[in-house]
Structures are given as C-alpha cells and as structure tokens.
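Support request from a user on the community tier.

User writes: "When I paste my structure tokens into the form, the page sometimes reloads and wipes my input. The last time it worked, I copied everything first. Here is what I submitted, just in case something in the input itself triggers the reload:"
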C-alpha cells in the first residue's frame, strides 16, 4: 500500500491551524468492475470516522483514501475494506509532500 503524508496550508486569516492529512493507496484483491464492488469499498471506507475522500478503482484493484491520521489509521481502513468483502494486499510507503493550495 502506498501512503503519503500531506500538510495542508492554513487558510490565511481564518484562525485555523494547518490540518494534517494522510493519503493511502490500498490494494483490494478481487475488486472487479461488475457487481458494484468499487462502490461497496468506497462506501465502507467513507463510513470510517476521519476519512475525507475514498475512491476505488477496479482496473487497478486499488483504493485511494485521504484521511485524518488523528482520527483513524491504516488498520481501520483495512478493516473497512474487509467488511465490504474484499482482502488487502501489501503496504508500500511513499514520501511525504506539502500542498500549499489545500487540495
């Protein structure tokens, strides 16, 4: 699984501190384009508290997740994929990056 940390810039004048976000690419074994598997995985991931965005891609058998590491972690994301009826593959960490525009 690929993971990368991203530090979001604070909105000038908002009084909010910079938010910390993690991104993870999770292998989803058995994910196909038929039967709504990708939608099931996305819904399961989006129900995890702290998940900001989740997208499952059947052609690559991967789920792409952006989440708040102060509220959830990889174990909860993997459990959500398993609760949708799929298995996880191996993890592959990647480097962190800074995103000044807040996307």
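"...and here is what came back when it finally went through:"
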């Amino acid at each position: 699984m690929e993971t990368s940390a991203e530090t979001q810039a604070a909105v000038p004048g908002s009084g909010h501190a910079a938010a910390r976000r993690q991104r993870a690419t999770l292998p989803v074994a058995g994910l196909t384009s038929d039967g709504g598997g990708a939608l099931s995985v996305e819904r399961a991931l989006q129900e995890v508290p702290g998940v900001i965005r989740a997208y499952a891609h059947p052609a690559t058998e991967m789920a792409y997740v952006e989440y708040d590491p102060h509220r959830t972690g990889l174990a909860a994301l993997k459990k959500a994929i398993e609760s949708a009826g799929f298995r996880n593959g191996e993890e592959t960490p990647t480097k962190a990056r800074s995103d000044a525009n807040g996307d």
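Agent notes: The reload is a front-end session timeout and is unrelated to the input. The chain has two helices and seven strands. Residues 2-8+20-92 form a domain with the Alpha-Beta Plaits fold (CATH 3.30.70.100). Escalated to web team.
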